[in-house]
Design a protein that fits this description.
Layout lengths: L6 H14 L5 E7 L7 H7 L4 E6 L2 E7 L7 H8 L23 H9 L5 E6 L5 H6 L5 E8 L2 H10 L5 E5 L10 E6 L4 E2 L2 E2 L1 H14 E12 L5 H7 L2 E8 L2 E7 L1
Parallel strand pairs: 4-5, 4-7, 5-6, 7-10
Antiparallel strand pairs: 1-3, 2-3, 8-9, 10-12, 11-12
Amino acid sequence: MLAPPGVLERRYTLAHALRVLAPGGRLTALAPKDRGGQRLPKELAEFGCAVDQASRRHHRVCIAARPEQPAGLGEAIAAGGPQMPPALGLWSQPGVFSWDRPDPGSRMLLRHVPTLAGTGADFGCGVGLLTLKVLESAAVMHISLVDIDRRAVDAARRNVTDPRAEFAWGDLRHNALRDLDFVVMNPPFHDGGAEDRGLGEAFIRRAAASLRPGGVCWLVANRHLPYEAHLKTLFASARLAEQADGFKIYEAHR
C-alpha cells in the first residue's frame, strides 16, 4: 500500500491493513520521505510489528509481518474514522479536504453566494458546507453534490438531509449534468500533493458545459491561480466579486 500523508489517515489505513491480515501475513507499505515515509517504521512498530525498511526513489519502503496481537488497531481506526470535529460542526473524516475546520476560501465564498433558485450543483462538494448555505433558499428546487472522494460524499449525506439534495461519487470531469441554473464550487488544484492548475480549469469547463444560457457559477480560487482567461472564454460575463486574504471570488454567467 501507498500510505497517505496525513498522520491520522495513515495510521487508520495501516490499522485496517493489519486488521485484515492473518497473523504472520506480510504488509508492504511505502510513502515519500517528506510525506510520512520517515514516520512509517515507528508507526508500524507502535502496532507491534517488526519492520524491515529500505529507501528507494525518495520513498521509505517498510515490510512487516502482522503480529499475533497487534496493539492499538481499534484506537487508530476510531481516530481516523468518521467524526464531527468541533471546529467544523459537521460529519467529516481525516483525509477529506479541510476535514476538521472550514476552509478559508469556502468561508469567503459563503459570504458572497446570493439567494439562488432553480436546479444547481455543488462541484467538489466536500462534506456539504456550501450546499447547506445554498439550501437556505426556498427557491432552490434541487442540488447535486459531486465529489471524487467517497468519504466526503458519505459525510455530505449525513450533513445534508434536505430531500432536495442528490449525491454522486465520481470524477466531476466525466459528469453529465446539463441545463443547471447555478453551480457553486471551490475547485481543487492539487493532485497527489503536487499543484495541478488543470484541475481547476477542468472544473470551470465542466461548469460552463453544465449551465444553461444565463446560468451562474460562483467560485473561489487561490489568488495566484490564473483562471481569468478560462472564465472570459467560456462565459458570457465574469466579474471579480472580491479579492482578499489570498483568495478571489468570481461570479460568472453563461
